[in-house]
Amino acid sequence: MDRIRNINPKRIEWSCDEYGITPEILASQLKISIANLEKTMEGREGLTVLQLQKIAKYFQRGLLFYLDEQPVKIESLYTPQYRTLTNKNPHLSPDVKALIERIEKQRQTFISLLEDLDISDKPNWSKSIQELRLLPTGDIKNISNQVRSWLGMTRSENFASLRTKVEDKGAFVFITNGYNGQWQIAKDDPIRGFSVYYPDLPIVAIKKQVSDYPQAFTLMHELGHLLLHMESYIDDREDLYSERGKEKEVNDFAGNVLVPDEFLKEIEINNLPSDVNEYDQHFTRFRRQWGVSTEVILRRLLNEHYISNRKYNEYRDWKNDQPIKSKSGGNRTNRFKEPLKMFGAPFVSAVLNAYQENRITLSKASTFLDNLKIKDIHKLERGAW
């Protein structure tokens, strides 16, 4: 096979630096001749088209990226929001960096589709925020009550309803996929979610969990960053338990939004089980009605001095010792629903409307919807979801 001319070796070198590897490691992982790669790195003909395609796929770039003779311009490649997140978190894995970049591209696609469709009543984040008119920070309880009213929350919520309420205010809420692939955060990665602040259509990304209960807290935690701090943040598991600074502030915010003081009055404190391993069963009714985990309920009780630190920590220690229940991977018979779960109904509806109005091709619709097959796109069109 012919060797490719005009490969820009500086771009391969830059990609290796981004992933924290050397060209030698790259060649070894992709089973590419190190001699051929070295020739390319020296500006000579070395790599074949197939080999360059393997490199491009590995670094999640297009083939033309490595044929561009210009040096990489970070400012044009990455948004200021992306650079803010990665500068704050320099040890992010390459896969997480690629995921953030990919979600930002989906956001831009969403904006373009909404502009083309010219929807008059589309959600508008900046307008919604103006209507909210938050109280000064520091009064978390009253701010939380404001936000509950702003979102239109009731006494009975679940993660799906909370997600819809946040999306209706003009945020792009993304949930990672439970299957391996380009939309997943690795199960052993401690990251639980991140928020990417934009004046319009900010991003809230949530790592898929075994149940919806912890996802609800992450959703409100990231919403807190957008509303209270108007900055981009990446949060790992420890941040969602933090008792310091801005993380404590949004943790208190999330807890009060999900479980306001009036809810706590329904709990008979004197009738709590003596054994912490009975807490999950004891709070079942409240968890299902409020859409929260036992952990969130206990944290609220702790903050209001209804239970002791000892009891709270005993429960956490017990819970951490329990085996994680994993859902079966299944056979993906509902593959057509995965874009809905990841990108949300507003995004999927925008893609389908654009296709039905002949503004985008079926092929483009498939690309936007995680490369769904044609038959699956038609299932979505029929409203099977």
C-alpha termini separation: 47 Å
Which ranges are low-confidence, i.e. pLDDT below 50, for 5 or more consecutive residues?
A: none
Quaternary structure annotation: single chain
- Determine the structural class based on helices, strands and strand pairing: mainly alpha
Kindly give the count of domains: 3
Q: Quote the average pLDDT.
A: 92
Run of helices and strands = HHHHHHHHHHEEEHEHHHHHHHHHH
Major sheet: 4 strands, mixed
Give the number of DSSP strands. Answer: 4
Strand order of the largest sheet: 1-3-2-4
Q: Please tell me how large the radius of gyration is.
A: 24 Å
* Secondary structure: helix percent: 40-55%
Beta fraction: under 5%
Shape: globular
Count, helices: 21
Task: Supply database-style keywords.
5% strand, 434 Repressor (Amino-terminal Domain), mainly alpha, 4 strands, 385 residues
Question: Explain this structure to me?
Answer:
The protein is mainly α and 385 residues long. The protein has helices spanning 9-19, 23-30, 34-41, 49-58, 74-77, 80-88, 94-117, 125-132, 140-151, 159-168, 212-229, 245-258, 261-264, 279-282, 284-290, 294-303, 309-321, 338-343, 345-356, 362-368, 374-381; strands at residues 172-175, 191-196, 203-206, 233-236. Helix content is 54%, strand content 5%. It has a 4-stranded mixed beta sheet, with helices on both faces. The longest helix is centred in the first third of the chain and has 24 residues, at 94-117. The mean pLDDT is 92.
